[in-house]
Amino acid sequence: MRLRALLVACLLLVGVPAAAAASPTVSLLRDTELDSSALYFVSYDGLVNNESYQQDAILSYAGYQYATWYTADRSVVVARRKLPSGGWQKVVLPHKLTVNDSHNVISLGISPTDGRLHVAMDTHNTPVFYVKSEPGLVWSSAWSAARFGAVQRTLDGVDLGAITYPQFVVTPERRLQLSYRTGGSGNGTNELAEYDGTSWRKLGKWSSATGSWTAPNGVTSTTRNMYLHGLTYDRRGRLHAAFTWREGNAGVLCNSGGLTNHDTGYVYSDDRGRTWRSNTGNAVTTPVAVSQDLVVDPLDPNHGLMNQESQAVDSAGTPHVIISYVPGRFTQCVTSYAADRNRWARSFHLVRNANGSWTKREIPIPPNATGRTRIVFDRNDNAYLVMPYGRIVTASKASGWTDWTLVFDRPSMNVFGEVTVDSSRVTSEGVLSVFYQQRSTGTTPSPIRVADFRLG
Known about the structure:
Shape: globular
Distance between the termini: 8 Å
Signal peptide: 1-20
Organism: Kibdelosporangium aridum
Low-confidence stretches: 1-20
Largest sheet: 8 strands, antiparallel
Keywords: Signal
Strand content: 35-45%
Oligomer: single chain
Radius of gyration: 21 Å
Protein name: Tat pathway signal sequence domain protein
Mean pLDDT: 95
CATH topology: Methylamine Dehydrogenase, Chain H
Pfam family, one: BNR_4
Structural class: mainly beta
Number of helices: 3
């Protein structure tokens, strides 16, 4: 990597743009089967085992990698292996998926203060199913189902009510937070709970479902929910949140076949999600309500804008966001959300500049899919996009993230739709693990696999 940096510097000295340097590459190290017959059904265009917004279905910590899924009989499986290439050891938890709904994903979290593995699962506007391990499990070589506690419908007695999208994130003080939504699509709020190594407590609602927003057609909506592209702490402890709003009133649309998502907004918090500030640094009233002051990339609700796509923060603390929608050059009115996105959707990279402005560039490789793309950074701040079907696109920091190049596309892997990735292993080892399920038909179970890529 030092040689590459020297090459880029020399090119700049002789007047050759950095973008002329080669884009980062990936090389496939191994592709491992975890389960030959994982649960399979298509719901909301996705699979319950592979929604890219899961945080996390696969993650690494203290020399082990963990993965989770529902197997053919609907049981919850949690597996781990010793890195870099140990065999997978599986345990089955005493819970089975209650409904065929792809929202009801499984999310894993690790609390560094006590070494527990936490599992939140099987919820879509219902009380969560929650399990935690014994303390110290993540540091121990012993691995068995007996080391996990009972299935709960609360967080150790802390009642969250009916929730959706449980996602774990670790604070700079090594506390574990759980992000979740209460309420429903078009009328819901984001909330946080926090585990200090001893007990859970609710931090409360930080986004608002109320307030008036008027669409270009003059129709006003008075309820919505904020869909997060992620919650990401940078090295300095700032919590970044990019998002889109979804309106509760379908009348804001030009056609009922569309989706009421609009605008990309951004806020950040320097006190672990207790209070928030806008892109300009101004304090924002909590819970955060709909406001054009928070918008960093305006877009009306008629372009099939994807919710919960992806964000990441580079080593300098700069937030990057991936969004996708149908650009106006194709249509100004999406009439069939899935069909129009498959045909016309394009992905865009948004990056916040040092002065607070944002730069937006279209990625020249179409997703050719309804689903979402994940972004991760290597240790040199090169960007890697993992698109639906397991396609990988890269851009170099040296180019200012402009030299987007398709570097991996293998249809023979038979990947269905969205995938999930282990971003923690990218940071620790320079290896990208892509967790995917192979395409099947109807409800016929199919294999779950992990592909490991060396980043270069």
